Amino acid sequence: MSEATMCDPKAKVCAYGECSECLLTCHPMLTIPGEENIRFSQWMTEKITKDEKVSTITVKREITTTQHDLNTDFQERLLHFKRHVFNIKWQFNAYRELRRSLKHNESLLHIDFSENYSCKYSQEIQSVHFGGSHQQASLHTGVLYTAGGQAPHTFCSISPSRRHDPVAIWAHLDPILKVVRERHPQVSILHFFSDGPATQYRQKGNFFYLSTEPYKYGFKEITWNFFQASHGKGAPDGVGGVLKRSADRIVAHRGDIPDAQSLYDKLKSLDTSVELFFVPERDIESKTQVPAIAAVKGTLRIHQAISLTPGQMKYRDISCLCKREEGVLDCPCFNLQEVTLADVPVSSDESPAKPQALNKRSVQIEASAWKYVEEQLQK
After folding, report:
1. What is the pTM of this model?
2. Which residue has the higher pLDDT, 30 or 251?
3. Which PANTHER family match (predicted)?
């Protein structure tokens, strides 16, 4: 249906409503003679106030409107929907092509937070079973892909901390980046793929770490690509499912898993093919917090972030790796833009080999951020 309103379903300008030829193209609609008003049910969000607290709930309401208004609303939503469908297909194709054509100096990390595991005992008294005594463990799962026909490497980091913000993300990624550096010393380019929740991966804090942390491990170029919203399921979800089923099987055979450390120890004893790491809560709490930085304009539209120089990030609406075979990650396609996240001095051996991107603009941050990044990179 959405493709019927576009000149070329594979063209971004058509899907994003930037094509002068099909911008005003509408999908044909049938009308019901003699039926001016139409009634239908629709899910809606409403705000309710109780005990001086305002909360948002989702309810199903019956709507009455005219055929004309319903048609207009449908056509407007179709404009957003065709962009959504285009992004789904484009990002999956980019992911598939990147996996297929990885070079010897590249690696691909597909990561995701699994739903927290609720720790449990094999036998519980009533107050524990129905109360709030159960602890939870965070599972950050992923798959590492490298070139040369090597089998994908699955991993999972387990932590008692329930934080899923950028600080926790990079605390979970620290042991993974060490593994990549130690086992694949030839890798200098990291490609990340993940879903794009605004509280986790697709936000200014993660962009800041993306443009600083990997350089501490000796990586030179980094891209972070996001699947379209609500379409980020993949191999990492399977990793989390396997580990949770294994944990439940342990409990079913009279094993107790009261906390995250026990979960890690019990799963480790199974000799699973998934490599496990334990991230203590102190490692997350001790990690330097994200300094005060301004949000990147249009963050929710970003599907690819690129860092070639410490403190700098380039980004665009959709992923593009058309010149990757030539060693160029920041091709000017799809209105590539640049943002300064930290003013980091670049030494001679870190000088970027690529020209500066077009449409450069800066985001001001506090001086503390500049000092922090400089100190981290000099370690």
Report:
1. 0.84
2. 251
3. UBIQUITIN-LIKE PROTEASE FAMILY PROFILE DOMAIN-CONTAINING PROTEIN, ULP_PROTEASE DOMAIN-CONTAINING PROTEIN
